[in-house]
Here is the input.
Amino acid sequence: MRISTIAFANLKRRKGKAIFLTIGIAIGVGTAVALLSLSTSIKEEIGSQLDRFGANIVVVPQSNSLSLDYGGVSVSSVSYDVKQLKSEDAANVLDIPYRNRISIVSPKLLGAVNVEGRDVLLAGVDFESELTLKRWWHIAGRKPETDQELLIGYEAARSLSLIELVTLTDAQNEHASHSGSHQSSEDQFQFKIARDHLRIAGIDHLVAGVISQTGGPEDQMIFGSLAHVQSLLNKPGQLSLIEVSALCKDCPIGDIVSQISERLPQAKVSAIQQSVRARSETIERLTRFSAVVSAIVLAIGSLMIFTTMMGSVIERTKEIGVLRAIGFRKEHIIKGLMIEVAVISVLGGLLGWGAGMLASWLALPYFAETRVVFEFQPLLGVTAIAAGLVIGTSSSFYPIIRASRLDPSEAVRYV
Amino acid sequence: MPFVTIEKVTKIYESNGESAAVRVLTDVNAEIAEGEFVCLMGPSGSGKSTLLTVVGAMNHPTEGRVLVDDIDVYGLADERRADFRREYLGFVFQQHHLMPYLNSLENAMLPLATTNCSSKEKRDRAMNVLEKVALADKALRLPNQLSGGEQGRLAIARAIVNDPPLILADEPTGSLDTKTGSEVMGVFLKLNALGQTVFMVTHNPENSALAHRIINIVDGRIE
Here is the structure.
């Protein structure tokens, strides 16, 4: 017989209490594991969604000339000492070592055109990549599909009398709000396309859609297909800028910028620090939230273990007193109780890890919008067991020390 | 030279806010020789059990000292006093205080759990004392599967497994009927006959009649 024999026999005898404590630790650890696992997976998703939500790198030509302005980014116009960007440069961006971190490359050609007596900024874009990049755009109408089709910014459409404002009745408003934002009918935009033809440089174009007001530079612009606009502006193969969205996992944005600069020496490549910082801050906040919730759950679990252990010590006062009376030292009492707590804690940690992983696997589809890959994390198992052990032993420390200090004569009298 | 010397022992339970200070023992002096069987008698509340726990190195006296085999028991540090209890004393409680989740063999082995003996030696010694108290055939039974007398004998087995020179017993037959009480007394007599010193608290005159000597205590004083 060893002290561990007594500890195991005691656990066997007090099965209910042992199971209750194990479940307590398992709930605490399991919640922390589930939150950690969920937040890791969701962080990945949010990260990649944020990465796709707008560009975080802009490539413009190196130039000493005056420039047009596009959303605060300087764009060179025809002038001296201009190093032009070419259509193939967009493909070259995807030729850097970090190409797997680049999700979208959206080349553009910008130029001023006079339409029906008004100066408007005309942008040639690749609609596929542009619309993926500008997910916040709501289009009344549809995406342009041919070279002769255009997408018009709200203010540009208004000034060219392409749209008519409509006043919705309350009933229509309610219908519009209930029908959701996926409807492409014009009534949810509070305007309707009044005229769907526009003549630019002598060529008749079809207005495929109008972008709802965004408050951004696109409100004043007309968008056409890149090749068509290059031809209209008589700038074949030329680009004004390239917007790049880099998947910012671990955020090697500086490295990506350096690699693009190296690949396109005639271009000026800059990272939009604001978007990079916003991404980091969002993810940081999510991590902090998970940590705080986990800490609260673990603290509640610890408190529960503490009160249960205190109750257990009081309940076992007589037994501990007898052990002290027959010659058990304080350290023997501590060792016996610690073995019990350690067994419960390891089991609780293990169970918590399994339950947490299972819970996060089951819950992930409800939290993540896109399909997120569930990661089985064995290392988290080791951490969970260690966490269970730390919670169990630290919460039981005071009750156990108190038990070891019991005066044997008092304890034996306590019947 | 006496084996146990109780020297001017006074015990006062201090006031704890709810109750006033209680003087339980006053200037108690007594001696017990090696191999002697001494019964401590007195009315309820006279301080018998307190004196037994004081001699049993479990209850620090307010004044005075206790010497066992010339060792000043309360001069020892707390952990050394625990070792002393294990090596020198066998304590038999009135309610037996057996561990309900351990079988008879494990209960008998309990004081050996903290020693460095091999598992086999611990088992052999426990079986040996179970034989001495005629419980060898019930070694694997739990305490609740034993009769009152058997539980009493098992408590004695646990007290003597370390072969302590001094056995302290607090009314070991108090909760037993006459027949089973006699069984238990028989075990104490046998152990005493083998040379172990026995100091027993009892109310029962029939039990005390079997002892070598009776010490009477009234209101915390030896008469």
